[in-house]
């Protein structure tokens, strides 16, 4: 039998072994050092263990997906979350929104210029009958249609405001693709529903939510924080120099009559055009307020991820991930990869849109599109364990529309001869959505619905509380208490 040689001594033990001629005093000092080292090591181990335990206790992040058609208010809802739970990041991004707000304003002014130009030069008026969405301001419309009220003063305003056309182009170029309109799309309301089995890779769809913000800051290395690229700065200069003329145009009674006749007045008043804020927004040192940022409109491209940590309440310490998607029909195929492991969906359905058509497919009524989408979400087998929370949004606009005398039954024949007031209309629409949930859900689920107006940040103080089923790990309850409905509509409807 072969005898193996003894293993050579371990070099580490050799290096750390005490010297052979160690004195008692040296030995005492060494043992003190070693004891100290062991203590520190034990403390580190204990810290790691405590952190692991805390992480386990906090659990996986809660994932919430915001769904709904384009312009339903998804990104506005995210901004409310940021205001409530990530105010420092909201503040950091605030000055970047100035260019978006300027673009929103300039687009509105250019829309007014288009309308008045067509009136001044009727030969160019190619789309006078194009506006068909609601029967607003009919009395003033017919009065205005009998005589053109525009004069040389309006021609002069047209000329002086002409540079805003270039400003719009420059800002669109700076801000990128999100400023383009949603492309026309004649496909399904829920293109992913047919493909539920074959889901794509999620990463393919995630887009940077900093894209347009960093684009604004590129170029000049020397720019300090909050400054933006020269194009946006030039735009701000031109806007400041046009302030008085923009106010004169918007407040002119002849122009208002033309806008009424062409049925764009209420859309301009109620959209994110900042037309009633020109004096403030056009100032050279303008800094957007929280409310301005919430109202500003920029289309979401792809899917954007937001991370929040809740510092208060029963869920303190837990991470929440919010996914904000582009809602245009052509973007909806990108939603499916996010259905896999989410806990809840906040579905935004703008109920003021009952008489409007989809921008991407003018044949489709917007409320009908929301109902089709809701049906696809409720009936999805992939989403059967996902909690659905419905925001019946834009209640403020519903109220305004009804107050203007728009009749719901003209666009929604099933409404019949029910009372044409905002409360009854909202309740009716809520019932429609509830019916879909009850009929289409693969398993019984609770109907959580809120009347919202998410541009109102004071009222939309979103507080979120979640409880986890300790045994299944499934979300058992997500309560989104929004202090909504009551203030906007002057009533509340129990959910
Ligand atoms: N008056 C009013 N305006 C709202 C409300 N909710 C959203 N808006 C406005 O509607 C516009 C569209 O809102 P967004 O939050 O950008 O819509 P979105 O669902 O994210 O749209 P996409 O990104 O295109 O899918 C913005 O100008 C908002 O200010 C509301 O409750 N009331
Ligand atoms: Mg959006």
Automatic annotation (TrEMBL):
Molecular function terms in GO for this entry?
G protein-coupled receptor binding; G-protein beta/gamma-subunit complex binding; GTP binding; GTPase activity; metal ion binding
Compositional bias annotation for Pro residues:
1-11
What's the protein name? G-alpha-domain-containing protein
| BP terms from Gene Ontology | adenylate cyclase-modulating G protein-coupled receptor signaling pathway
Task: Mark out the compositionally biased spans (Acidic residues).
Answer: 125-139
Q: Where in the sequence does UniProt note compositional bias of the Basic and acidic residues kind?
A: 19-31
The answer, when asked if Transcription is one of the entry's keywords, is: no
- The answer to whether the entry has keyword Methyltransferase is no
Would you name any one GO CC term? cytoplasm
A single Pfam family it belongs to is G-alpha
User: Region (Disordered) spans which residues?
Assistant: 1-31, 125-151
Q: Which residues bind Mg(2+)?
A: 300
Arranged from A to Z, the UniProt key words for this protein are: GTP-binding, Magnesium, Metal-binding, Nucleotide-binding, Transducer
Compositional bias ranges of the Low complexity kind: 140-150
UniProt binding sites for GTP: 393-396
């Amino acid at each position: 039998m072969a005898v193996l040689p003894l293993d050579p001594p371990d070099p580490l033990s050799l290096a750390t072994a005490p010297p052979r001629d160690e004195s008692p005093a040296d030995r005492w000092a060494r043992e003190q050092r070693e004891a100290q080292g062991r203590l520190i090591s034990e403390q580190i181990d204990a810290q790691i263990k405590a952190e692991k335990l805390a992480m386990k206790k906090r659990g996986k992040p809660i994932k919430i997906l915001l769904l709904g058609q384009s312009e339903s208010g998804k990104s506005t809802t995210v901004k409310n979350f940021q205001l409530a739970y990530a105010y420092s990041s909201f503040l950091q991004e605030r000055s970047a929104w100035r260019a978006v707000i300027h673009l929103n304003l300039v687009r509105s002014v250019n829309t007014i210029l288009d309308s008045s130009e067509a009136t001044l030069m009727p030969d160019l008026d190619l789309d006078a009958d194009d506006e068909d969405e609601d029967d607003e301001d009919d009395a003033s419309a017919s009065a205005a249609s009998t005589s053109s009220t525009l004069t040389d003063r309006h021609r002069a305003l047209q000329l002086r405001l002409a540079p805003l056309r270039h400003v719009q182009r420059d800002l669109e170029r700076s801000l990128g693709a999100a400023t383009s309109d949603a492309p026309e799309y004649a496909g399904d309301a829920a293109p992913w529903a047919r493909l539920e089995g074959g889901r794509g890779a999620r990463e393919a769809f995630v887009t940077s939510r900093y894209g347009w913000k960093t684009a604004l800051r590129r170029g000049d290395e020397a720019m300090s924080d909050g400054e933006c690229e020269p194009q946006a700065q030039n735009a701000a200069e031109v806007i400041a120099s046009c302030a008085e003329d923009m106010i004169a145009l918007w407040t002119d009674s002849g122009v208002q009559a033309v806008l009424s006749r062409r049925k764009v007045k209420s859309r301009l008043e109620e959209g994110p055009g900042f037309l009633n804020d020109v004096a403030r927004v056009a100032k050279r040192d303008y800094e957007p307020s929280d409310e301005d940022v919430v109202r500003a409109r920029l289309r979401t491209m792809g899917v954007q991820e937001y991370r929040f940590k809740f510092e208060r309440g029963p869920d303190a310490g837990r991470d929440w991930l919010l996914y904000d998607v582009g809602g245009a029909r052509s973007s909806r195929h990108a939603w499916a990869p996010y259905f896999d492991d989410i806990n809840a969906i906040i579905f935004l359905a703008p109920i003021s849109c009952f008489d409007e058509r989809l921008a991407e497919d003018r044949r489709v009524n917007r409320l009908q599109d929301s109902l089709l989408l809701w049906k696809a979400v409720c009936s999805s087998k992939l989403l059967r364990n996902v909690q659905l929370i419905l925001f019946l949004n834009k209640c403020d606009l519903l109220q305004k529309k009804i107050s203007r005398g728009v009749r719901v039954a003209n666009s929604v024949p099933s409404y019949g001869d029910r009372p044409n007031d905002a409360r009854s209309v909202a309740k009716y629409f809520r019932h429609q959505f509830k019916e879909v949930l009850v009929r289409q859900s693969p398993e019984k689920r609770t109907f959580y619905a809120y009347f919202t107006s998410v541009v109102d940040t004071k009222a939309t103080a979103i507080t979120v509380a979640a409880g986890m089923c300790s045994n299944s790990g499934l979300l058992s309850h997500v309560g989104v208490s929004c202090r909504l409905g009551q203030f906007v509509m002057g009533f509340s409807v129990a959910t």
